[in-house]
Amino acid sequence: MAAGLAVAGPVTPSQAAASDCTGGARGFRDHPDNASGDTDKPRRLDLGGGVVITLEKGAYVGQQIAFGKISGPTRPGDKVWMDWRAGGWDDGGRPEWPVRPWLQCGPFTVQSHGQSLTTPFKRTSTDPDYQFRVCGSLATNGVVRCATANGVDWW
Questions:
Q1: How far apart are the C-alpha atoms of 78 and 136, rounded to whole Å?
Q2: Element (H, E) at 130
Q3: What span, in angstroms and rounded, lies between the C-alpha atoms of 150 and 2?
Q4: Of 9, 30, 83, 116, which sees the most CB atoms within 10 A?
């Protein structure tokens, strides 16, 4: 897996909130913070000190899903989120739910030392315009980074 890179340019949309994707909003589904996907992680990045963000993939009722995760020796204030973009063909079903340029699912903030956190999951698609990425930051420096593979952050 390739090392992660700091992302140049804006990483977050102008407005983002965990409520944009929790409780079933926009087709996302909540699940336990200790959940893990397949052993093959589409994206992985060590933010520093062994704190890792991963883009996880797995299956739920026969459909492939994706979600973000932060794990390792986390500290309160560390953050993770998952961005989703769909090339305009899936806006979550309602015009007040725009996903352009993308929808940020999170941030979700670590509350205790060593806590693992996941974002809600969303089904994936074979459509190349339907993509995900995972980003995060450490409380110690606040630098936002997104996990990459071969220099590409979106999966």
A1: 7
A2: none
A3: 6
A4: 83
